[in-house]
Amino acid sequence: MKNALRQKRFWQEIGASGQTIAAARLPASDFKVLDYWRPNCILTSGMLDPVSGQLERYMDLLSARQKLVASNIANADTPGYQTQDIDFQSEFQNALGGPPQVIQISGLPTKNDGNNVSLDRESRLLSENALRFNVATNLLRSQISQVRSAIKEGQGS
User: Fold this and answer.
1) Within a domain: residue 23?
2) What tens-digit pLDDT sequence spans the chain (157 residues)?
3) Residue 129's closest CA among 74, 97, 88, 100?
């Protein structure tokens, strides 16, 4: 019964975090390891250096910006709609890690209907965002690869 509760809690945590595991059937003994491993490795990023936490924050901000840019493009023909963005530098330096502050962009030319969305600007931001996200993903991937390499070396001795 205790193992069934552990398994249920494990799958709820995995579902809540958006992660998936290919092996859906794990023996009960593995949950003992996972109960220790998950909080110590995933939640605190104990095996990765502090940069990985900053990369995670950076990628969260890029994701938020991507949503705002998509919203701006979707509302390009909405009368009175004002372009929204986030102040990327100040949000990245914000240590609280909460949701980013959405700001109105000033200085953009306004059309007759009050809309100031520039499709050229938004397209540039989409490309810039994709490039930044790819760089951050590659950096994080290389850190995880280094940890895997260290684990494999430790298992061989």
Assistant:
1) yes
2) 555 555 555 545 444 444 333 334 444 444 444 444 444 444 444 556 677 778 888 888 899 999 999 999 999 999 999 999 988 778 777 766 678 888 998 899 999 999 999 999 999 999 999 999 999 999 989 888 888 888 888 777 5
3) 88
Q: Which domain holds residue 126?
A: 50-142
Note the pTM of the prediction, 2 decimals.
0.63
Is 61 in the same domain as 129?
Answer: yes
Residue 145: closest CA among 53, 52, 34, 63: 52
Task: Check whether residue 66 and residue 134 sit in a common domain.
Answer: yes
Same domain, 83 and 59: yes
Q: Please report whether residue 154 resides in a domain.
A: no
Domain count, the chain: 2
* Residue 139: exposure state from Cβ atoms within 10 A (0-12, 13-18, ≥19): middle
